[in-house]
Here is the input.
Amino acid sequence: PYANKLQRIIERCKKSLLNVEIKHTFFKIKQLKLSIERAKAEITTHSPTDIAARFFDTQDRSFNRNVSRNERKTTSKLLRLIERTAEQWDVMPTFNEKSILNATNVQIPQETQTLLSLGPKFALPTDVLTPRHLFHMIADVEAILNVTPYKAVRDYNRCRITTAIQNHISRARSNQRENPVSKFCKHASITTKKFLDDHKDIVIVESDKGKRMVVMYIADYDRKMSTLLDDSTYKVLPKDPTSKFQRQNNTLVRRLSNLELIDHFTASRLTSKTATCPRIYGQPKAHKDGLPLRPVVPNITAPTYQLSKYIASVLSKGFKSEYNIIDSFSFVKYITAVTLPAGYILVSFDVVSLFTNIPKDLVIRDIIMNWDTIGKATNINLDLFLEMDAGEKTAKTSTKEDDYDATIGSAPCTYVCVINLYGRSPLLCFLIHVGGGIKWQICAFMCYNIFQLHPASGGSGG
Here is the structure.
């Protein structure tokens, strides 16, 4: 009965001994470095400067050659050990039934279910690495490199990343053996592609929460998306206005640059060259009955995406709301310190179509009211800053057939600045008034949820 306990003690003992061995090795390295420094000091003291310099240079070159040779040998040994160990382990993917939801009557092959249950972030192995597979990674790398304004730093990091990618491609081509996981993924991918070819009436999409994969009929998906867009929040546009908004965005950026309110690097980043109308899609809410869709608009292709981020950065520096909660961890930390008054309960509201229902005039009013604080974070005057607000002009999105515009507010891309104004905004006062006209205490705002303290009796529920 004590076998497992004994085994755990043995494992802990092994790890402790290994840690002592590692510490002892580092101690010996430290002592060796001290000895080398003392020897260098002795040589420098008792030898001519030129002779000592040549000797140190010869020793450094020899040292670097030995380090490179030993590093290659150790790395090769480690890779072989990892490969042999991986072959011995049972590393085959297992099916997680909670990670997939089948909303159809179609029987899904077991291999396909296992592959889908791995989640959208699981990287499938590739047989042949070509530049086509690296396009997205290169684009992401360039976007990260452009964050720094220093060209020398960008070039240095670009060279290092290019070398790492090339080394990876070379190792992949030289390694001819295929591990069990790659074999399974290759076979499961073929099975899944055949399954989708045979059932063209279904679609596989990622859920809104939980990282679940949802299998549903395309007809149901299109019907639910049409229901979302048929709401009075949106209206159909006669044509795609993206080109016009791109010209307006670039004209405004040139004005800021000519007035020397932004530098050349910032102007280049805010200029839009290849904008396309963002395409809306829906993510099923797998945790709710009926699988309602949450509309998602990837605004990274919008003409004012970078300009909106710039406005948001100014507002973030110049305005802080005491009610904003960054993430769920911060909310847990915050809510544990909240004491409910006698006769109060904690309620939350899930805001529907948040950004598209915020009037533009409300945002402008808040910016004007708080400009004494916001203006300290930028050298742009208020009138020009309000011109940069592109909410009503760029809240556009498209489907496979039509282009849509928000009739009241704006898309999250262009009104990303709004999130910084919550907490003191008249929007919350409006919600409190609608809730029954009674006095409520604002507690916190997180994402699309408002948490408030509400009297346990009296007034309507909101």
